[in-house]
Design brief:
The complex is a heterodimer.
Chain A lengths: L17 E9 L2 E9 L4 E5 L6 H9 L9 E4 L2 E2 L10 E4 L11 H11 L4 H14 L15 H13 L5 E5 L7 H17 L3 E6 L2 H7 L2 E6 L2 E6 L1 H6 L4 H6 L3 E14 L4 E16 L4 E4 L10 E13 L2 E8 L3 E6 H6 L7 E6 L5 E4 L1
Parallel strand pairs in A: 3-8, 3-9, 6-7, 7-8
Antiparallel strand pairs in A: 1-2, 1-4, 4-5, 9-10, 11-12, 12-18, 13-17, 14-15, 14-17, 15-16
Chain B lengths: L15 H23 L6 H5 L2 H34 L5 H13 L2 H12 L6 H8 L7 H26 L3 H8 L4 H29 L3 H6 L10 H11 L1 H29 L1
Helix pairs in contact in B: 3-7, 3-9, 4-7, 7-9, 8-9, 9-12, 11-12
The chains are: A alpha+beta, B mainly alpha.
């Protein structure tokens, strides 16, 4: 995945890989997500809760039927009406769903057994998978005796043991505590890099998506709002949701030369020169706050704002501001104390033009 | 202030309007069993219990109750699965019909079975003329009567367990290539085994004590259809001491079952 030459565009010629349009209608909710990936690609579906990510995954697995207009092809094979047990698809569920009455080994052997492999052979294969995951000594353990990270690896081994052409991971790290997460994320990254077919993972954690995937599809309210490489999406967010996830202030307006005029009248001066509909983004750390109107500042952007709220963010304080321009600003605890910041206080916010990033809508 | 808070025993805190009826209730349940023990003709017991009829009736009871339980499991567990897992129109009505034998007086059940499976019954006449099979007043008839009354206990118990079990395990199994039946057999069934065991014990106990449906559908022929409850009832007319002795045997069997399963139930939950 570190290989930058690896294909990351969703255009896939007919044949190898995944080519789908996931349409699922359920009452008032409609999911409509085109999805394409080449073998070896890791695609992350990122989005807020209720966006339809898990529904998309279930549709890929065949656990939810596609509605009219939906289609699903994998390696050139039509899978629209194929029942889940006949799809070459492996799933790692969010809470793993390891069968509690079976040992780790028998959990992994379950898939091969169901697909016609003899008992001894299936268990031998399962043992190899567990060894690959570094879990040989836990082969006989029941799932309730495994730690979260171990259970996750057993679930991954179980899904891979059927040699799927499409691997689905539903919030693969959500059930783990912060410390285990770091290890498991790194391991998962290695296993996904080794995986030769298409992998699709669902997450609401941008970090997981950025680390694990080479193509990001952002879903909001059942629709794709943005896709691209993780780096591109992070630098050029197109919705508040992504901007908030990656910690950026994001505005939409019309660019003319070095300025972007927002719909509500505020003007942002930018380093780039653009014309037409555009986004402007800058990180909260680019904002400098002053109690009085600054006179000697070289910053090209100056807004009068009011403090709406404050919260600690690591060793810094993030202030939410309203006024001429709603924005988030990061400052040190010392600075916050010196400025005597409190909710309702009036402040002046400055941002250098060079700290902003403008791009076409 | 009355008793200091927190230091009281359980009864110290129980208000009288609850405590008195509770103790009456306890006595109501225990006293008859104690009376049975007090009036037992202990000295003549060996003589009363060595008769072959007693052992015949006990053997028949155990065999029929076990057979009825097995029948209930074979057809009742799939029925419970259908009710818990498959959406179909009229499911509520079907569930009501399944539970009806729970509240139906067993004698009515026996009459209904005669109408269905009797020699001139709706189904029974064909069984008789095509296959020469006669069910009423046979040992098989006893098993059918007991299963009719006992199966709803098993179905209700298993359905409840199935509803509490996470259906996503079945989904996980299908994504691994298991057909729906394989998923049921290899994943669901082991997961709900404690519920099936509990339901089977309830059904078995109910079958063991079955009286009304049995005597109506299968009659009261010693050695063939006379189970322990029928034997007790018959003995009570002629030989009350024998009836007490037989009752004690049934009580002992019940206690043995309860004691035997207590540990299993505790660890299963």
């Amino acid at each position: 995945m570190t290989d930058v030459t690896k294909a990351s565009t969703p255009e896939v010629p007919s044949g190898e890989g995944l080519d789908a349009r996931l349409v699922v209608e359920r009452g008032a909710f409609r999911l409509d997500v085109p999805l394409a990936a080449a073998p070896g690609d890791v695609v992350a579906l990122l989005g807020p809760n209720g966006a339809g990510k898990t529904t998309a995954l279930r549709a890929l697995a065949g656990l939810v039927p596609l509605s009219d207009g939906g289609r699903l092809r994998l390696d050139g094979r039509e899978l629209d009406r194929t029942p889940p047990e006949s799809r070459p698809v492996g799933v790692v569920f969010q809470d793993y769903l390891l069968f509690p009455h079976l040992s780790a080994l028998d959990n992994v052997a379950f898939g091969p057994r169901c697909r016609g492999t003899g008992k001894a052979e299936a268990r031998a294969q399962a043992a190899i998978w567990l060894e690959r995951m570094g879990l040989s000594e836990h082969a006989g353990a029941k799932p309730r005796r495994l730690s979260g990270g171990q259970a996750q690896r057993v679930a991954l081994a179980r899904a891979l043991a059927t040699h799927p052409r499409l691997l689905l991971l539903d919030e693969p790290l959500a059930a783990l505590d912060a410390r285990t997460r770091l290890d498991v994320r790194a391991q998962l990254r290695r296993h996904l890099a080794d995986f030769e077919a298409v992998a699709v993972l669902v997450t609401h954690d941008p970090l997981d998506a950025m680390v694990l995937a080479d193509h990001l599809v952002v879903i909001e309210e059942g629709r794709v709002v943005q896709e691209g490489t993780p780096g591109h999406v992070a630098r050029h967010p197109r919705t508040d949701y992504i901007a908030h996830l990656v910690g950026l202030n994001l505005y939409r307006g019309r660019a003319k030369g070095h300025t972007v005029r927002l719909d509500d009248g505020a003007v942002i001066t930018t380093a780039e020169e653009l014309t037409g509909p555009a986004f402007v983004a800058f990180p909260p750390s680019a904002v400098t706050l002053h109690r009085d109107r600054p006179t000697g500042s070289s910053a090209r952007n100056l807004w009068r704002c009011e403090v709406a709220g404050m919260e600690t963010h690591g060793d810094r304080i993030r202030a939410a501001l309203t006024g001429e321009l709603p924005l988030a600003a990061d400052l040190t605890t010392v600075a916050a104390a010196e400025l005597d910041l409190h909710a309702g206080a009036t402040v002046w916010a400055t941002v250098k033009a060079t700290q902003t990033r403008a791009y076409h809508d | 202030m009355r008793a200091p808070r927190g230091s009281g025993t359980a009864t110290g805190g129980a208000p009288l309007p609850l405590l008195v009826p509770a103790l009456i209730g306890l006595a109501f349940l225990v006293l008859p069993l104690v009376a049975l023990l007090l009036r037992a003709p202990w000295s003549s017991m060996p003589g009363l219990l060595t008769g072959t009829e007693v052992w015949q009736a006990l053997r028949l009871s155990l065999i029929c109750a076990t057979a009825a339980t097995v029948v209930s499991m074979v057809i009742g567990v799939p029925l419970a699965w259908l009710l818990a897992r498959v959406e179909f129109p009229g499911r509520g009505l079907v569930r009501a019909l399944v539970t009806l034998p729970l509240v139906l007086p067993p004698v009515v059940g026996g009459v209904a079975l005669l109408m269905a499976l009797g020699r001139n019954g709706v189904v029974g006449q064909w069984l008789d003329s095509w296959f020469g099979i006669t069910l009423p007043f046979t040992t098989t008839g006893v098993i059918i009567a007991e299963a009719f009354v006992a199966m709803p206990f098993l179905v209700i118990s298993v359905e409840g367990t199935l509803r509490a079990a996470d259906p996503r395990y079945e989904e996980a199994a299908t994504t691994l290539g298991a057909s729906r039946f394989t998923a049921f057999r290899r994943v669901t069934l082991p997961l709900i085994a404690p519920g099936i065991a509990a339901g089977a014990v309830l059904a078995w106990a109910r079958a063991l004590g079955e009286f009304g449906a049995t005597i109506t559908f299968a009659g009261n022929f010693p050695g063939r259809t006379q189970t322990m409850p029928l034997a007790v009832y018959l003995a009570l007319q002629n030989d009350p001491e024998a009836a007490i002795a037989l009752s004690l045997v049934l009580l002992a069997v019940s206690i043995a079952v309860l004691a035997g399963l207590r540990d299993r139930w505790m660890t299963a939950s």
